[in-house]
Structure formats: C-alpha cells, structure tokens
Amino acid sequence: MTTSFLQFTEEKLGQAEKTELDAHFESLLARADCTKNWTEKILRQTEVLLQPNPSARVEEFLYEKLDRKVPSRVTNGELLAQYMTEAANDFGPGTPYGKTLIKVGETQRRLGAAERDFIHCASINFLTPLRNFLEGDWRTISKERRILQNRRLDLDACKARLKKAKAAEAKAACEGDAVPDFQETRPRNYVLSASASALWSDEVEKAEHELRLTQTEFDRQAEVTRLLLEGISSTHVNHLRCLHEFVESQTNYYAQCYQYMLDLQKQLGSSKGEIFSGTFVGNAESTSPPAAATSPPAVAAATLPAVPTIPVVPTIVGVPNTVAESVLNPNEVKPPASGTRKARVLYDYEAADSTELALLADEMITVYSLPGMDPDWLIGERGNQKGKVPVTYLELLS
Questions:
Q1: Which one-letter DSSP state was computed for residue 126?
Q2: Closest Cα to residue 148, out of 13, 26, 11?
Q3: How far is it, in rounded angstroms, from Cα 46 to Cα 48?
Q4: Cellular component terms, GO, for this chain's entry (predicted)?
C-alpha cells in the first residue's frame, strides 16, 4: 500500500511514468461513467415527478433504508374528494351545489386512485431497476475499478524499481570493468565494485520476478473490469424496456384522467342549462325543489334508452306538473321493454320518502330512465322493490 501511494504521489507530481490503458478500455470507462451520471439524474427527477413533496420523499427514503414498509399516503385528489363530499353533506346533497360537489368529488377520488396506481407501477417498473443498477451493478464496477487502479499502481512501481535496479547494475558493471590502480591508497574499492555489481544483478532478477507477477495480476483484473464495463450494454437494454413500461403506465394514467374528466364534463353539462336558467330563479321565488325538465338531456338518453315519450305539460313555477308527477311515480310505472341496465351501488343511501329506493354499498340493482325525470335520478329495481335512486351513488355497468 505504501508503494502504491508513493507511486500515485509521484505520478501526480509528474515524477513517475504511468501505464496507459488502451483506447477501447478508456471508451468503456467513459461510457460507464456517463451511464451512471445520467441514471442518477433521471432517477432523482422521476422521484420528484412522482412525489413533488420533498419531505415525503425523505420519509420514504428513510423507510426504505430501515427496511420498513412505507405507510400508505392519501393522494391530493382523494383528499379533495373527501372535503367535497363532506361539504356536500353540510350544504345538502339534494341542492344543486351539493349534487355538483358530489359529482366532482367522486371524479377527484377516481383521479386520486389512478394517480396512486400510476405511482405504484412507475416505482416498480422504472425506479426500482434504475436504483438496483446504482446500488448493485455500479457498486461492483466501482469496486473492481478501484482494485484495477491499485494493480496498475503496483505494476508501475515494479517497473520503476526494475528500471532503477538496471541502472545501478549498469553503473556497477562499468566500475567493475575498469582497470584497478594498485598504487592507490585504498585498493579494495575494485573488489567492492565487483561485489556491488553481483548484488544489483540479484536485485534486477528479483524486480523482474515481481514485475511478472504484478503484470499477471493487472492483466487478470483488467479483464474482469472490462467484462463488467461491457455489461453496460445489457444495462441499457434493460433500462430501455423499463422506459417503455414507464411510458405505457403514464399513458394509461393520463387516458384514465381524460376519460374521468370527460365523463364529469358530460354530467355537469347535462344540468348546466337547468342550473343557470331556472334553478336560481326558482329558489329565489320558492324554497321548494325546482320543477323537473320537460325532456331528458342528450347524455341521459344516450346512456339509458327511455320508454316511449308521454306528453308532458311545460312546467310553470309554483304550478304542479301533474302529468310529470304521474309518470315519475315509481309505483305506477313499468320498466321499458329494452334499455334497462345493471348498476353497482357505490355508497349507502337512505330513502327520503316512499318514492325512493334505499341502497346498500356494493349491491347490484336494475336501473332505467323515464321521460320527464330529473337527469340526476333513475328508477331502480331490486326484486319486487322499486323507487328513484340518485345517479351519483351508482356505477353504471355495460
């Protein structure tokens, strides 16, 4: 270790020669360093994309290092949905504002759930392989590179030692070949020179032996490191596959978000005209619920085919619409011959009166639409029971 450190210091000071690696090996090293640097940047920025909150990222990092399960965290969309639902309950779920809050809140809940699924898929299919490379393969490569560096320093130190030994041997040989002067005061210098030449010859042989050993170790380590560096190509192929999976999961996520928002826009658009044209006027004149629309909206008609149209008298504020009331009485209507659908109940619902049907979460019922009904309601049937049910509490099945 001391010899290697001395060699390293002399190289930095420009006082020692250095064994250079071939151009192909240097290219592999540069490619590996580039892969490592960009993988780190992509990993960090993807983590920021999936979790913008730095405190939450630090918390998740600590849980991973402690090998503990990361606690489930509510997404922003799910939290907003919770607030909207609670607000609707306070304002009244039957009011226009309350009904709209429930619709938007349900969509936000779906968006939050989609976001959670996307984050989970991206973490498993994209972040985990990148992190495994940095914490696994790259650490192995770095370790072998450090060993190769030490082997190279040992090799260069042996080369320097052999060079010095050969120079000293040559100098001693020159002094031994000179004709001795027996008249000098110290004639034994000639004998000492001959002895020194023999000693340096032994030193040269020893240095050559050490050089062969270190050269063998260096070549072996260089081959190991080269194979690991060439494995970077396989890493690129694996990361390419993971990148495709990341894009696919992100595409599915945004497609879900678009579909949810499109459905919400249609729901809100079906009642927008009623809200801004007649609802507030009716509320200003009377606290009673607004009269039913004279015809079903386009969205409801497309979703659930209705029974043949029954003439409906136009609604006048303050005057009951007897025809519409008779049509919307669940106990007196019959389901259409075609156009009924199955629906899954999302939440428990308590009937407000005898015309409504109480619901239990996750149960399946049959639903259909009638002309003249409020677009936010459907007729629901469960066995022999029949009554009006709110659309926002249902998931319509194809």
A1: I
A2: 26
A3: 5
A4: Golgi membrane; mitochondrial outer membrane
Q: Which residue has the higher pLDDT, 282 or 102?
A: 102
Say if pTM beats, i.e. exceeds, 0.70.
Answer: no
The CA distances from residue 34 to 28, 38, 294, in Å, are 10, 6, 69
Three-class SS of 255-320: HHHHHHHHHHHHHHHHHHHHHHHHHHHHHHHCCCCCCCCCCCCHHHHHHCCECCCCCCCCCECCEC
Strand partners, 364: 344
Write the DSSP string, 159-221: HHHHHHHHHHHHHHHHHHHSPP-TTSS-TTHHHHHHHHHHHHHHHHHHHHHHHHHHHHHHHHH
* Residue type (1 letter), 81: A
Residue 331 lies in a domain: no
Q: How far apart are CA 111 and CA 101, in angstroms?
A: 15
* 139 contacts 48 by C-beta, under 8 angstroms: no
**Domain boundary at 261, 276, 291, which?**
276
Judge whether 327 and 383 are in contact, CB under 8 Å: no
- Does any domain span residue 316? no
CA atoms within 13 A on the CB side of 329: 7
Query: Helix 23-50 to helix 138-177 angle, to the nearest 10 degrees?
Result: 150
**Domain CATH code at residue 74:** 1.20.1270.60
In the DSSP assignment, the letter for residue 377 is E
Q: Which CATH number belongs to the domain containing residue 349 in this structure?
A: 2.30.30.40
More confident residue, 175 or 38: 38
Which of 190-204, 242-256, 353-367 has maximum average pLDDT? 242-256
129/223 same-domain check: yes
102 neighbors 95 (Cβ within 8 angstroms): no
pLDDT winner (highest mean) among 186-195, 218-227, 277-286, 321-330: 218-227
- Summarised one tens digit per residue, pLDDT across range 317-338 is 333 443 344 445 656 667 776 6
